[in-house]
Amino acid sequence: MNRAQLRPPVTEEKVDYQLKKKRVRGCVRFTSSAIWSWFMPWTVRDRKYLLKKRYQYRIDGGSKFDFPNLLQVSGNSVSFTEPSLYLSVVIPAMNEERRLPKMLEECLSYLSEREKEDAGFTYEVVVVDDGSVDGTSAVALNCAKQQNSDRVRVLKLEKNLGKEEQNGVLCARGKLILFVDADGATRFCDYGKVEEELIRLTTADGSLPGDIKAFDWTFPAVAVGSRAHLEKESIAKRSWIRTVLMIGFHCLVWLFAVRSVRDTQCGFKLFTRSAAASLFSLIHVERWAFDAELLFLAERFKYHIAEVPVNWHEVDGSKIIPVFSWLQMGRDLVLIWPRRHAETYDDDTDFPSRNPGAWDVKKYCSQVKIDIINESEDGMNLEFDLIHVEAPIANTLRRVLLAEVPSMAIEKVYLYQNTSIIQDEVLCHRLGLLPIMADPRSFKFPLTKVIGINEGGVDCEEEPAGDPKRNLIFELKVSCRKNPRCPKTATDPKELYENAIVYSNAFKWVPIGDQSTALPYSPSMVHDDILVVKLRPGQEIEARCHCVKGQGRDHAKFSPVATATYRLLPEITFLKEFTGEDAERVKKSFADGVIGIDSDGLAFVKDARRDTCSRNICRHEELAKHIVLSKKKNHFIFSVESTGALKSSELVVEACKVVEDKCLNLKKLFAEKIEALMQ
Question: Beta strand pairing status for 501-503 and 531-534?
Fold first, then answer.
């Protein structure tokens, strides 16, 4: 009796019980979420709020100039607007008339120097006054005047609602949008490092483009300034109560919201325009924990996120009220968790992370990149990188190489004599797998499908003459006999007998029609030393083999490649510095050449491409937690080995032609179907 027979039968009462249980569970989740929402109000921004006009502040109270909006609506379609500048710096400020001047001076000084070096570097600074009761707005404009800068604009909010970052970002005009705290705790000169890491996220191979301003600003990515590397120093300087609260807050962030970023609260974050449009139109938390919600949403949408160490120092005058502000931040974090698990977290947005305009196939193809890494002297082995494509495209190329690119192979064997110990069927099967040195592009496919023995018997009784446009014929005629000149002491069958071992070089090409003059080469077997059969005196084989053009999807013998594989480019990131014994252990955990150690004894990633056994580092838990292993999702390392008829590079080109033909046929089919529906 099997296990299924031992199970009790499922009764109607049991089914009803399970249904009631699911309903009760759903009611509990809904009720708990509703109660929690009543106690903890959840801010919701509607489309009207996001698209409303916002006006620049002027000291003299003159005519108003409205800010251009990051978002736009055209009919029923929604999108983000085109950028008119390279960088927008958003500075939220509330009662910052004392700390803002120094920060603005450093900011404008850096940006103006950058502009002098590169005329294409255009920028703006948007100071968002969140209901200040001092002269923050006037101070900002006066500082800009002292710096002879006309790039500073002020957005003054009437009431302090803790939403200055969102309002400022909605007024930004740049491809990149940076929001930075008004206290100047983070050195603005670190912007360059954060900018480089963000732009690397937008490229498939993680490299910087020749013109750094020519990056894809429609790609959603986030770069976060981080103080995590200063954690030990900050703990040493802070009081024990602040240290406990800080560690507790980090635990709450990791538990309820963000797990890929160690420092979520550093006020130095850079977004591409598309990422900012999507994230800032969704945030619900308005005060101190809004950073964590932004990164939570970015993780939820699987945006690329980079954490970049920056120089940071404590500045007096913080608006955070000890204990109370931290409790408020903790409340906001906990607010996210039950809504997410009760499936009531609102992360739907009308505004797409990508530009919703028509997909430009020419632009897409222009970004595709192929790098030849290595090619053998005979051209049979090829390693190349396919960059800026998605996995389905890479897999299509691999499958076409295996199954769609045609080659020539022996299809019919007319066996006139076989007295070897190998059965006729086995011998014919071996012959069919011999790789043929013949260019399939010179031949046509068979007119009819070959009828196999299992499908209706042998399709002909006599050998046909063959078609010079569709066939190649090879003849095998060998017999084994004793070698009269054999030494008396010989024991090797090769010396004792003639034709004792038959290799692939025994096949002779028999031209059909004008093939001897039409073909610029003499077809043969790819290799001369493939063992076919062993004979003994008196045994012989006589056969004529007819080759046809075919595809690997019909039979493996037609596959033109021995191997066609790809893998993603590995990435290895160190979250800390490894020196001394730790550096040696890290180096030994990876394949040779992956990790290097510099003159100072510091481990560094030398060549991640060589990585084949990176999971070995997981054996050392104390090291593994400081190393991030990942792969570039659109960088594919291809390895192609030809069976010999064509060079590997030619096979790749032929595979691309097959894919192109399929796409054109599909396009034609769609056009015909649409035309039929329109009639």
Answer: antiparallel
635/161: higher pLDDT: 635
Strands 77-80 and 71-74, bridge-based pairing: antiparallel
The CA distances from residue 83 to 71, 240, 277, 416, in Å, are 11, 47, 12, 78
512: left (phi over 0), alpha (psi -120 to 50) or beta: beta
Nearest to 607 by CA among 585, 591, 589, 627: 591
CA atoms within 13 A on the CB side of 634: 17
Report pTM. Answer: 0.56
Closest CA to 44 of 292, 294, 331, 281: 281
Alpha helix (H) residue ranges in 98-239: 100-117, 136-146, 164-170, 191-201, 231-237
CA angle 34, 36, 39 (to 5 degrees): 110
Are the CB atoms for 647 and 380 separated by under 8 Å?
yes
State pLDDT tens for residues 524-557: 999 999 999 999 999 999 999 999 999 999 999 9
* 3-class secondary structure, 555: coil
User: Of how many residues is the chain composed?
Assistant: 679
Complete DSSP assignment for 363-389: HHHHH-EEEEEEE-TTSSEEEEEEES-
3-class DSSP state of 257: coil
CA distances from 233 to 193, 237, 400, 443 (A): 22, 7, 57, 74
φ, ψ of residue 180 to 5 degrees: the values are -140, 140
Cα 571 to Cα 611: distance, rounded to the nearest angstrom? 9
